[in-house]
Amino acid sequence: MPEKEFSLPRGIRDIEPEEMAKRNWTYERIRDVFRRYSFQEMEPATLEELRTLEAKSGPAIKDEIYWFNDKAGRSIGLRFDLTVGMTRMIASRPDLPEPTKLATIGGNWRYDEPQFGRYRYFTQWDAEIYGSDSPSADAEIIALSIDILDNVGLNEFEVRISNRRIIQGLVEDLGVRAQEKMQAVFRTIDKSRKIPKQSIAEELRTTGLDGAVIDSLLEFTSIQGKPSDVLAKISGQTRGKEAELGCKQLTELADAIQGLGKANRCLFDMSVVRGIGYYDGIVFEAFDKGGEDVGSILGGGRYDKLCAIYGKREIPATGVAGGIERLLISLERAGAIPKMTQAGRIFVAAVNDQVREQALTIAGKLRSLRIPTDIDVKHRSLGKQLEYADSLGIPYALIVGPQELESGQFKLRDMTKRTEERLTLDEIVRRTSE
User: Dihedral, CA atoms, 52, 57, 60, 63, nearest 10 degrees?
Assistant: First the structure.
């Protein structure tokens, strides 16, 4: 079979109408929660200077993103997440009252290897709180995340929480102090839900750790359970200022989550460290219990040092991001997305060309009343118009003919039940608005 002359780049796809309807349904429910928590929406720039992206992730990020030199020779990169742009903007706005709560939904580009649930262009929702170093802000972000998953109808999920300070303190106590080596350890531990324990141990050996240190790490990172149980278990195993501060923050977080009524959704899990290097405190991820193959459906944490990279002041921050593509996979499996169409709710069909102008007037009136309405633009027969409306899944057809115009009562056909009744236009408005 010959290759198509025009095809999309690898890892890129169209969002077709059927999926777009599901996305819009999902976006509306996510934004509903943004509003409930008083987050302000914004749109970070889609293009950044390459040095802005490198400031967050280092020069090696060029291998993982889309970047180019523009016509003036400037190095430019497409955004690969939403946090960078939001943080860069916040660092330049000392006039904003703190804490500042921002949210967005937008597309990103990464030059990753395409795989299940992962594309080179993808959409994320994101929420960040800038200007508070209290675990209450982390609790607010976690509670918002839980309410988003509840609001889109995903019931079987759990949020797993830890604090990188605790793991850092343990790793330092075990003799690992070089920052590069510590980040390698974090990245390996972050894979613990994806690869077997033995593979984790082998990968840790490549960082130069000996067997006793690896055993201690694996034992500690296997601790998980209810917040109170985990805090009791780790309190005697953590030493050093960083680890003690991490435990204190988790204790405050547990109290705040309890106060917000979200404790039943949360576990403390010492294997959660998040592989991204800029996290420096509380971290968390949410998993669909019925779809572990999807991976985490959202994740986030605290990053108190990132803002200083983009400005002259340090601003404590915490946030969360979730992938729309992965979320839709979980929602589809759970049957949470209702059957829908982007077509109109009512189709106005003219029986002949003589009444077409009046049919257009009726369609205009319905649209002015915010009723999604479609019309025929091909001058087809009544039968063909009704076939078309049915193929789009439009639930009602309003039939306009000379008799209907004279009597003021129009045929309203229920396209699902295959029934008809005669109603005035006001009655049709009430019926189709229900």
Answer: -80
Q: Which two tokens stand for residue 240?
A: 């050093």
3-state secondary structure of 418: coil
Contact status, residue 162 vs residue 284, Cβ threshold 8 Å: yes
Domain ranges within the chain, ordered by starting residue: 17-44+79-334, 346-433
pLDDT per position as a tens digit, 211-270: 888 888 888 889 999 999 999 999 877 777 888 999 999 999 999 999 999 999 999 999
Q: How many other CB atoms are found less than 10 A from the CB of residue 151?
A: 16
98 in Cβ contact with 129 (< 8 Å): no
d(CA 369, CA 433): 9
Question: Dihedral of CA 166/167/168/174: which sign?
Answer: positive
The topology (CATH level 3) of 17-44+79-334 is BirA Bifunctional Protein; domain 2 (3.30.930)
Q: What is the CATH number of domain 346-433?
A: 3.40.50.800
| Average pLDDT taken over every residue of the chain | 91
Cα separation of the two ends of the chain: 50
- Rounded to whole angstroms, the Cα distance separating 279 from 321 reads 13
Question: pLDDT by residue (tens digit) across 352-384?
Answer: 999 999 999 999 999 999 999 999 999 999 999
